[in-house]
Structure formats: structure tokens, C-alpha cells
Automatic annotation (TrEMBL):
This is N-6 DNA Methylase family protein. It comes from Pediococcus claussenii (strain ATCC BAA-344 / DSM 14800 / JCM 18046 / KCTC 3811 / LMG 21948 / P06). InterPro entries: DNA_Protect_Modify, S-AdoMet-dep_Ade-MeTrfase_prd, SAM-dependent_MTases_sf, YtxK-like_N. It comes from the Bacteria. GO terms for biological process: methylation. PANTHER family: ADENINE-SPECIFIC METHYLTRANSFERASE (PTHR41313), DNA METHYLASE ADENINE-SPECIFIC DOMAIN-CONTAINING PROTEIN (PTHR41313:SF1).
Amino acid sequence: MDTEKIEKLFNVFEKSISILQKELDIEYLDALVETGDNLYTGEVQVIDNQPNAEAVRALDKLYSKVKLSEYKSAEIRETIQLVLIRATQEEKIQANHQFTPDAIGMIFNALIDGLDLDLQDAKLADLSVGTGNLIETILDHLASKKVSGIGVDNDDTMLSVASMSASLEGVELDLIHQDAIEEIEIGKVPLIVSDLPVGYYPIDDKAKQFATHDKKEHSFVHHLLIEQSMNVLEDSGIGIFLVPSNLFQTNQGQHLLAYFHDSVYLQAMLNLPLKIFKEQSARKSILILQKVGGSAKQANPVLLGDLPEFNQRKEMQKFLRDYEIWAHQNIYR
């Protein structure tokens, strides 16, 4: 990627956001979306004479400094990530709403490649799509297969960011604004990915429809979303999730394991390097599940372990070679 081009586009975003916040009296994220939409359409959106003519001239001059056609999708995505980092400082965005870094998205890409799935012209889904960075990283990687995506989230601001970034990056992503725990009508997909939000789901009446719900307290939303994701997978479909490393060690972990017993094959759980987390309790892992049915079978052995440090190139290459051998013996459909 060209860092100078990224810096140039970042500066355009920053200055545009500043102008729009002042002129329209809107929050940082709203000004980010407005900026992205203006860049995509090639003109400043004006409603009820706002922003005023002077601001429009300033924005037009600013936008003329960049040509999006000269940018790769990854460079646009990197720029938006940098702007979102600034947004977390400006608006104190909660952890569940922060974007999934490209480094983790690239690991997802490598794991998907190793599974050698037939994804030509397929749809993949993310039921907690957030700003869209994870699924858009994957869609860009799978562009040659003409893969499209479906994203679900109940936060309209996050969906606006996802829609804007997908348009700028040129990936095909349909977005649905709804609570993903409710019934979803998106058909069956062969692959589902997600950086799952962690916490309690507050509506017990909805949660009790799921096998993974807890009868004594609010159920974990990440457990419910795993089960819901399995519901929209086709038989033998694959789910890859970013989850807490202690997923099965909590007081509700047994509900998840009991659900897996008849419906899901737990194929792999790979811990991200501890070094990238401030403390052990915050550590995340990548969970690979396969829906029972079709030609699916339980992996033997289940792949468990730690991923190498991201900057350990030789170790990562060896891990991925070993992973492909394991996948060929256990997961290929």
C-alpha cells in the first residue's frame, strides 16, 4: 500500500469532517459518513442550504485533491480505519462498536483459503457487522470469486459507516438494520464470519427461544449469535468467529457445549497472540465451527493452539501449511 496516498486521503477526511461538524452541528461519525458519501457521489450533499455556499466551495476544493479511482480497496479501507481510530478518541466508542483490525481480517482470509471452500458467486454473512471492516476485508480478498456479503446490525450509525465504506471500496454488501437475535430472512449461506460482541442480551423472552439461553440470568449475546449464525448456515457450512478465549470457561459455557453436541462440529479454536492484548482476560481466539449435515464430519483432532505472532513470518507460514494439511484431512467438503 502507498502510505503517502493514504495520508493524503486521511487528511481530506479529517478536514472535511471538521468542516461538516461545524456547519451541520453533527457528531464525528455522522460527519465521517457524510464525507464518504460526498466522495463517492462526487458532490457535496446540500439539504435546506446546509452546508452553506462557502463551505461547499471549501469542500469541493478539498475533494478535488484526491481521485478515488487511483486508490486500491485496501488503501481506502486503511484510511477509514485511521479515521475510525480518531473517532474512538473523539466519541469514546464502546469496545463492541470498534472495528476489527485488518491484521485479524487477514488471518480470517488465510484460514478461509486453507479450507478451500467452493465460494464462487456465493454469499457470506456477518450477523454483527458493525462498521463492516471484517467482512469487507474478506470480500475484497475473495473478489475474484465474485463473492457478495450480507451484514446485520441493530446500530444504524455503524451500518451507515459500513455502507459508506463498502461503496468506496467497491465491494458488494447488503445491509440489514435489525436485532440479529430476531428471525432473519436471508436464506442459507455457505460461510458466516463475525467479530462477536461480548456481553449480556437484555431481552429474556427472545433469548429463551435459543438452546444456548440461560434460565437464571441474562444470556450471553455472543452465545446466542453463534447459534443464530448456525441457523442461517447451509448444511456443512462453516462459521468463523472472533470470540473471548475463555468462551467455554464461563458459567454459561456448558449451554454452548451442550448445543454443539447435536448441531455443530467444533473444528478449531486458535488463540490470538497474547502480546496484542493488555491482559490475559481480554484475549481473543478464532473459533471455527461446521454445521452438522451434508458431508461434514468431526475433525480428528480438533485443532487447538496459539497462533504465531503476526510479525513472525516463517512461523506463520509453517502454521498455515500445517493448517492446510489438517483442513484437507478433516474439513474439505
